[in-house]
Amino acid sequence: MSHRFRSAIRGEPVDRPPVWIMRQAGRYLPEYREIRESHSFREAISTPDIATEISLQPWERFQPDAVVMYSDILTVLEPLGFEYHVESGVGPVIENPVESPADTDRERGDVRDQLWYVGELIERLSATLGDEAAVLGFAGGPFTLAAYACEGSTSRSFMAVRRLRANDPEAFEQLLDALTEVLIEYCQYQEDAGADAIQLFDTYASLLSPADYERYIVPRHQRILDAVDIPTIVFVRNMGGNLDMLADSGADVIGLDWTVDIESARETLGDQPVQGNLDPALLYGDPDTVRERTRAIIDAAGDTGHILNLGHGIDRNTPVENVAAFFETVKETAADTA
Fold it and tell me: What global pTM score does this model have?
């Protein structure tokens, strides 16, 4: 793990914030699109040679402070017997979604056996990067995975899982518990394979009311994050008014989306390290705008306890030159303070 990344997680002063971007390895890179012309998404993430090459593409271009493994949040559904594929223009599709409360009673297969390729990918990244950059693992959060498992595909409202919560709370909790148990094992597997830190993406958990979030989500986030001994980051979208519940997760770092004012978040969270939070859409502006808004976030966040990132995943059509401007601006901050 790079010293900047480690120091930022600990809330120690750094010459500049460490930086990486969510969906760092992906479709905005022409070299990624070239690989995908001959390999399906599932083939790419489950073949360590290919996944390693893709994970390292942003490293070769931008030298970020963290390299996130190329994978998908839905892989962890496999040990619970869910089958899925990715459709172009649609996204992930669960082939056998939850159709009744009885479907929430899931038997768990062997995580390390079924998801062996994830561990091998992390081992390869760790061996390649050493102390030059942090190797980041990740997992989807229990509510977001339950939302996909019930809906069968992506959705704005994910009403199917919310309907399950209303009609059969016991089945809802049974599904969340099954997911939580497999996530604990999955995160521990990533740690054992050599991940330096893990980010938990429960992106859609804010669809629950604050009372339900506190009841159903906070305790399960705590169980998952407490199960590993490496630094953890939690990310939930649209939580600006409930940052205290994100902090209650026990994560070392709180991920902030772009709807949150980072200076206000720092005041609310005190010494809690944060990550974020440039609006991904701003990377469609000209490079000067990217530089200006990036510097503004760095200034607002202060010089301790901040990992610079986007407020959500990078869009597939983002101009590569603007991504380069983003990374370059951060690195110039160190030169300015030297």
Answer: 0.96
